[in-house]
Write a structure and sequence with these properties.
Elements (H helix, E strand, L loop, with lengths): L2 E2 L1 E4 L15 H13 L4 E6 L4 H13 L4 E7 L2 H11 L5 E8 L2 H8 L3 H16 L4 E7 L6 H14 L3 E6 L6 H14 L7 E6 L6 H10 L4 E4 L13 H10 L6 E2 L7 H12 L20 H9 L19 E3 L5 H10 L7 H17 L3 E2 H12 L7 E9 L7 E8 L2 E8 L3 H13 L4 E9 L8 E9 L2 E9 L2 H17 L11
Helix pairs in contact: 1-2, 1-10, 2-3, 5-6, 7-8, 8-9, 10-14, 13-14, 15-16
The chain binds 3-methyl-2-oxobutanoic acid (KIV) and zinc ion.
The site of 3-methyl-2-oxobutanoic acid has 9 residues, from strand 6 and strand 7.
């Protein structure tokens, strides 16, 4: 009989801390709905005290999600915990995840607190959190570099105060599997009250061992893994959900646990998160990479054709890889459009928003005869990207590109309701378009990344462009999709500029 392994997804919190990956409330809601469809146990929806936007996003998620616990992060102070408690209040099941650093370097240099003060703050935080919910998780930030005796003391004290899950983070991705498993084993043996809580692990991937360390923790007794879709997260990212889940499922001969994840929802979740954040998935990424089930060598192809299991340990369809499904075309009506979107978890706030999206769908269907689910996702992403309002909007774009000449672009932008025209010359059509836009915007932002991805196959496919801009220490990603990649690029650039117009969130890893 397998024990249950709790899958705690932190794509919307730790994942969102990746440079430029911040998501709007609507985008977070779409990801949360997909996570619920995939049956993750806990959705860490954000850090309520970080900004009013984060607070609202968690609250909206708490209102609509019924099949997963909705959680907010909170530092160990009263204000953070109150904000987290208020944000999760509408949830069917709500959790507060409070944390404080426990390593000597963090306590001395960052918090400037003594170990006794840290224990007090941790206990008070858990007591406050219990006033809002029965599900309280406590994390010892930088546990990996903390003294084991001190960890036992802090964990014992917060269990006494009412914590129900104890999370052990490798905040800096420093551990290796046998050491990490050893630490979890020691803690479960030594901490008073260890048998009354769920032990959890949260591993970062700086040395490429986040998944291996998480699995080692599971073998040592952890019954919750914190992870993200596509391994998104701070620096090198977090343990990737799809790898943890598929390892446990595929090697059920080794692991005494199973999850309740509907694995056929993994690839759709991966595509959605990649599309929204602008973080592409590398082709050779385990489980969700485009080549994860592609057999190139003749020997492998021959083997798979004769007997699939010669070279495949998982079935592509079990993780949600399916042929692109033709769903709609130019003769499809508004109802078909609406019901396909709702099957994808996309619901519009108003009839007007639906009508605008439907008009965009008709425009796309005129250019591209076969409309796939991925096209619909991109179309909707385009539609709901800047709910704060579009400061810059593309009204018109024209580019002239011929052999032996420098490409020239003309654009017309709507800037706060006023029309502005500009031209630019560049080394390519995209460069010329960006120069034209920049001559109006004068943002001074630095282009950090430009990438184009074909959303589906075929030369009439939509190109999905990601533009990453940096200005004054702030990084934002902009996305745009269109069958014309110069237009997709202009949209992505403007989307990034629009994000730079609006205030950012606080950094959640600050003081207590
Ligand atoms: O990496 C980390 O330590 C964290 C904690 C807040 C759990 O993300
Ligand atoms: Zn983390």
């Amino acid at each position: 009989m397998k024990e249950h392994l709790v899958i705690f997804d932190t794509t919307l919190r730790d994942g969102e801390q990746s440079p430029g990956a911040s998501m709007t409330r609507e985008e977070k809601l779409r990801v949360a709905r997909q996570l619920e469809r995939m049956q993750v146990d806990v959705i860490e929806a954000g850090f309520a005290a970080a900004s009013p936007g984060d607070f609202e996003a968690i609250r909206s998620i708490a209102r609509v999600i019924r099949g997963s616990t909705v959680c907010s992060l909170a530092r160990s102070n009263e204000n953070d915990i109150r904000r987290a408690g208020e944000a999760i209040a509408p949830a069917a099941r709500g959790r507060i995840h409070t944390f404080i650093a426990t390593s000597p370097i963090h306590m001395e240099k960052k918090l400037r607190m003594t170990p006794d003060q840290v224990v007090d703050a941790a206990v008070r935080a858990v007591l406050w959190a219990r006033e809002y919910t029965d599900e309280v998780e406590f994390s010892a930030e930088d546990a990996v570099r903390s003294d084991v005796d001190f960890l036992c003391r802090v964990f014992g004290a917060v269990i006494d105060a009412g914590a129900t899950t104890i999370n052990v983070p490798d905040t800096v991705g420093y551990s290796v599997p046998h050491v990490w498993g050893g630490l979890i084993h020691t803690l479960i043996e030594r901490v008073p009250g260890a048998d009354r809580v769920v032990w959890s692990t949260h591993c970062h991937n700086d040395l490429g061992m986040a998944v291996a360390n998480s699995l080692s923790a599971v073998l040592a007794g952890a019954r919750q893994v914190e992870c993200t879709i596509n391994g998104l997260g701070e620096r090198a990212g977090n343990a990737s959900l799809e790898e943890v889940v598929m390892a446990v499922r595929t090697r059920s001969d080794l692991f005494p646990v199973d999850t309740r994840i509907d694995t056929t929802q993994i690839v759709p979740a991966s595509k959605l998160v990649s599309q929204i954040t602008g973080y592409p998935v590398q082709p050779n990424k385990a489980v969700v990479g485009a080549n994860a089930f592609a057999h190139e060598s003749g020997i492998h192809q021959d083997g798979v054709l004769k007997h699939r299991e010669t070279y495949e340990i998982m079935r592509a369809e079990d993780v949600g890889w399916a042929q692109n499904k033709l769903v709609l075309g130019k003769h499809s009506g508004r109802n078909a459009f609406k019901s396909r979107l709702s099957a994808l978890g996309i619901v519009f706030d108003s009839e007007e928003a639906l009508n605008v999206a439907f008009a965009r769908f008709k425009e796309l269907a005129d250019k591209k005869h076969e409309i796939f689910d991925e096209d619909l996702q991109a179309l909707v992403s385009d539609e709901v990207q800047t709910p704060d309002g579009e400061y810059y909007k593309l009204a018109y774009s024209r580019v002239c590109s011929e052999t032996g000449e420098l490409p020239a672009a003309d654009v017309t932008l709507i800037v706060e309701g006023c029309e502005r025209k500009a031209s630019g010359i560049g080394s390519g059509p995209v460069d010329a378009t960006f120069k034209a836009i920049e001559s109006v915007a004068g943002s001074g932002a630095k282009l950090m990344l430009y990438s184009v991805n074909a959303i589906t196959t075929g030369t009439d496919a939509q190109g999905e462009v990601t533009v990453r801009l940096a200005r004054g220490g702030r990084i934002v990603n902009g996305n745009g999709a269109d069958t014309d990649i110069v237009i997709a690029s202009a949209k992505a650039y403007l989307n990034a500029l629009n994000k730079l117009q609006f205030p950012d969130r606080l950094d959640p890893q600050g003081d207590v």
